[in-house]
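Wed. Picked up where I left off yesterday with Gluconate 5-dehydrogenase. The coffee machine is broken again, so keeping this brief.
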Amino acid sequence: MAEPRDLFSVRGKVACVTGASSGLGRRAATVLAEAGAQVVGVARRAEALAEWQAEAGESTHAVAFDVSDRNALGDLVQEVSKPFGPPDILIHAAGINTRQNADDVTPEGWDVTLSLNLSAPFFLSQQMVPSMKVKGWGRIINFASLQTTRAFPGGIAYGATKAGVAQLTRAMAEAWSPHGINANAVGPGFFHTELTAAVFDDPERAAGNAAQTCVGRNGEPQDLDGPLLFLCSDASAYVTGQVLMVDGGFTAK
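Structure written out below (tokens, as returned):
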């Protein structure tokens, strides 16, 4: 068994993080690089990815790619695997929230939300699992949400995908954990990111959300560091198929 100080180590592991150009995906990619992993960041915006790579250091690589392009995921896996080898850790942080009310949801808005938030995590994982099986070790981290279990205004498509992520995570665990590949999800509360800009642009609303937590504040990027390192390392060897809410106790009240 690893020494306690080594349990959370990701040193020498190869990680792929989607949505690495901004928000919590960028934070996840940076934290893993700082912890000693070799990290490939994936996102659509090449310029923002380059900024992340300059910040995160030499043990990183950037691949500009739209993970909702299902037909090209095989090409993405090849590109991601070139600099450091096939990933041991896969974090699905890419996501979209169209914020369309139920009466105004369009087929286009619905389809792009399901494609990016739910389909991409499965099909990209499916492409990467074979190399994890060969190693007998892997970690898949999905991104759930407060809307995994709560209904918010303007969130019917987004909430449907995030509820789906919870079941997807359990099904991934059932299918792949016998091969040493653990699948879990983190469920962030209200963190100030591009995706939640509309919430934080309203100070009264942001304060109201903070008041609904047990700890009395909204999330800071560093609040995600510990949970991610736990789920990406040997510390979570016997944890799979779970959704870990990182929400300051919002869902406990």
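Quick read: Strands lie at 14-18, 38-43, 60-64, 89-92, 138-143, 181-188, 243-246.
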